[in-house]
């Protein structure tokens, strides 16, 4: 029979989440409800904590997200900054960084838990949804490139042990390529677990700005980042191109 103190400890352990989902938000009123509601099912709600970090939305994002999040935090705008703020609040041993326009596959928590028995971090395959006929090709290219290089994008649902994320110093405080920069450091700890289950992510960037134009832009920016051009300069070029 456990002692009273042991019983309290067991009860507390059962209440602690297995996974902290961190979602950076900026003017996502159109999609935030659909992003959060699937995470609030009775089974999921007992195992995860949902942390929404708003970067100064001027729409109804905060109002819509507040009842659907365990924590709603305010932060200066910038995905890296917002995700670091969320990670500081997280209480689970595993972090999942999830964009507001990305949906998890069925059984995501179980697959993450299994992957982290052999890896320190990982990501999902991706399926981009939208109007452009190029999106299946873009999705295939993203998945293939990630397997070859060990680098994931934020759209792929990057998950990582909290201790590993902290040891790596979190996201670099930069306005672009923060996901690539983190992955480069994480690969020093372990190669990623490349899960074949697909997150469903919005292809709105390709639909709005043109698929071929966006593909060329992103490859050019990634190449220039690899060549040592600063993320600040690339962020300006990205804004100008859009």
Automatic annotation (TrEMBL):
Residue stretches making up the Glycosyltransferase 2-like domain: 20-118
Compartments (UniProt record): Cell membrane
Alphabetized UniProt keyword annotations: Cell membrane, Glycosyltransferase, Membrane, Transferase
First-listed, main subcellular location of the protein, grouped into a coarse class: membrane
InterPro entries linked: Glyco_trans_2-like, Nucleotide-diphossugar_trans, Trfase_2_rSAM/seldom_assoc
The organism's place on the tree of life at top rank: Bacteria
Pfam families: Glycos_transf_2
NCBIfam families for the chain: glyco_like_mftF
Xref: PANTHER family: GLYCOSYLTRANSFERASE, GLYCOSYLTRANSFERASE 2-LIKE DOMAIN-CONTAINING PROTEIN
Name of the protein: TIGR04283 family arsenosugar biosynthesis glycosyltransferase
Phylogenetic lineage: Bacteria, Pseudomonadati, Pseudomonadota, Gammaproteobacteria, Oceanospirillales
């Amino acid at each position: 029979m456990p002692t009273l103190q042991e019983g309290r400890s067991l009860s507390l352990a059962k209440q602690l989440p297995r996974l902290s989902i961190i979602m950076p938000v900026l003017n996502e009123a159109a999609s935030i409800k659909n992003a959060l509601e699937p995470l609030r099912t009775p089974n999921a709600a007992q195992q995860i904590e949902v942390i929404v970090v708003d970067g100064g939305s001027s729409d109804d994002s905060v109002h819509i997200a507040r009842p659907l999040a365990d924590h709603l935090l305010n932060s200066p705008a910038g995905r890296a900054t917002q995700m670091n703020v969320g990670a500081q609040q997280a209480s689970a041993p595993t972090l999942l960084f999830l964009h507001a326009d990305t949906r998890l596959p069925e059984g995501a928590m179980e697959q993450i838990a299994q992957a982290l028995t052999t890896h320190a971090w990982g990501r999902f395959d991706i399926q981009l949804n939208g109007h452009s006929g190029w999106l299946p090709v873009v999705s295939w290219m993203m998945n293939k490139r990630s397997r070859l290089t060990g680098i994931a994008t934020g759209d792929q649902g990057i998950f990582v042990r909290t201790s590993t994320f902290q040891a790596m110093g979190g996201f670099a405080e930069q306005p672009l390529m923060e996901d690539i920069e983190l992955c480069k450091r994480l690969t020093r700890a372990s190669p990623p677990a490349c899960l074949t289950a697909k997150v469903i992510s919005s292809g709105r960037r390709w639909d709005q700005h043109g698929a071929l134009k966006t593909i060329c832009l992103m490859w050019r920016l990634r190449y220039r980042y690899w060549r040592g051009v600063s993320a600040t300069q690339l962020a300006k070029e990205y804004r100008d191109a859009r």
